[in-house]
Amino acid sequence: MADPDNFRVHSIDHIKKLPDADKARAILEECARHIRPLLQARRFPQPRCSVRSAFASARDRAATASQARRWRVLKLYEICCCTAGGKNLGVGGFCCPAGDGVTSLRIAIRLRTPGHGPQADEWGAHSLRDLDHAMKVLIHEVSHIVHGNHSAAFYTLMAELTRQYETYLQKGQVLDEAGMPLTGGRKADASRHNPSLREARLAALGAAEARARTGAILGGGGRLGGGGDVCEYGPQ
């Protein structure tokens, strides 16, 4: 059986001579944590609204389960206008795929504004961009593991990864450096993640009251949005 620990970013490297080098490394480390679920995950299921048989649903679930990506990035590193790989300011990053469809030998990301030019004048020379910017570039470059050129299939995959990443953030399936889930891109409150017994009971009571109110509105056992086709999820 394949080792899940292999499907991740294996090493990172930042430019140590630039200002805020420790912050640049922290951004790369966070990028590595955020991209890991996407490297390991099954393909993101797409909604398909139709009435389908139980056999077809089971077949789709089995097909989705067999499509785990199992990608890996051997090296994630920073480039800048002052490094050999970052001279072209029009390039936000690049990927060197191994050619096996699952491995990137290295991915480079431009984390900073250039040291000169309009962006430097506006934001400051070599100022760090935020994590959201870095993740957009990283998701773009990770898509090149499978598709070398900017084809329609490439952009379809990039959109799939972006949707899946946003879903993981909303569900708190991306962890911070302390192992706490992030919700909506923000660190979850530890007290909310591990509520006290009293808080848990109050939450359960509130949920029960909400269900009772909904039942009264629906007239006893109805379902919001009922009727029409059944919306199921199958592989893209």
Automatic annotation (TrEMBL):
Coiled-coil segments on the chain, per record: none
Domain spans labelled WLM: 1-213
Pfam families: WLM
GO annotations of cellular component type: nucleus
Top-level taxon: Eukaryota
PROSITE patterns per record: WLM (PS51397)
MF annotations from Gene Ontology: metallopeptidase activity
Any GO BP annotation: DNA repair
Classification via InterPro entries: WLM_dom, WSS1-like_metalloprotease
PANTHER family per record: DNA-DEPENDENT METALLOPROTEASE WSS1
Protein name, entry field: WLM domain-containing protein
Organism (species): Emiliania huxleyi (strain CCMP1516)
